[in-house]
Amino acid sequence: MKNFKRVPVPPLNHINDYPMGSSCESFHITDQNSGWRVFMPVINLDKCVSCYRCYLVCPDGAIHQNEDQKFEIDYDYCKGCGICANECKINAINMVKEDK
Ligand code: SF4
Ligand code: SF4
């Protein structure tokens, strides 16, 4: 898994200082939150058409595009909510039971 860089959080004094959704790297808003995940989303890259929908709706900004323009999930920050799988219109994301 790619190791994403921690982004220091600046002082938040005004509403405009708050980072917005998936425009931020993982960990900009949350700490690692994968410990209680029961189902994990898995992207089927053979089906994915790179529409960005999952990227935009993930509440934790845990979905990114890698250097090959493929979408990937940072499982350290994915809480397994399933929103991305629910919103993918071509069902390219499957929720798979964790085995841990
Ligand atoms: S919503 Fe589905 S098709 Fe769109 S980028 Fe995400 S996985 Fe790919
Ligand atoms: S399951 Fe939830 S937290 Fe994990 S990548 Fe999908 S939308 Fe983001």
* CATH architectural designation of the domain at 32-97: 2-Layer Sandwich
Computed over alpha carbons, the radius of gyration is 14 Å
Tell me the name of the CATH class of the domain at 32-97.
Alpha Beta
Our measurement of the CA-to-CA distance between the termini, rounded to an integer number of angstroms, reads 17 Å
**Spatial order of strands in the largest sheet:** 1-4
Task: Enumerate how many helices there are, as a single number.
Answer: 2
Shape: globular
Helix content: 10-25%
Q: Hetero groups bound?
A: iron/sulfur cluster
Q: Write the H/E string, N to C.
A: EHEEHE
What is the fold named in CATH at topology level of the domain at 32-97? Alpha-Beta Plaits
- Arithmetic mean of pLDDT: 82
Uncertain runs are none
Label the structural class. Answer: alpha+beta
- Approximately how much beta-strand content do the residues carry? 15-25%
Largest sheet: 2 strands, antiparallel
Number of strands: 4
Pfam family, one: Fer4_21
Protein name: 4Fe-4S binding protein
Keywords: 4Fe-4S, Iron, Iron-sulfur, Metal-binding, Repeat
Organism: Fusibacter ferrireducens
Concise account of the structure shown:
This protein has 100 residues and is of the alpha+beta class.
Task: Please provide a written account of the structure.
The chain has 100 residues and is α+β, with helices and mostly antiparallel strands. The protein has a domain at 32-97: Alpha-Beta Plaits. 10% of the residues lie in helices and 16% in strands. The protein is built from two helices and four strands, in the order βαββαβ. It has helices spanning 53-57, 83-87, and strands spanning 39-43, 63-65, 71-73, 93-97. The strands form two sheets. The protein has a two-stranded antiparallel ribbon. A two-stranded antiparallel sheet has the order 2-3. The radius of gyration is 14 Å and the shape is globular. This is 4Fe-4S binding protein. InterPro entries: 4Fe4S_Fe-S-bd, 4Fe4S_Fe_S_CS, PorD_KorD. It comes from Fusibacter ferrireducens. Keywords: 4Fe-4S, Iron, Iron-sulfur, Metal-binding, Repeat. Residues 39-68, 69-98 form the 4Fe-4S ferredoxin-type domain.
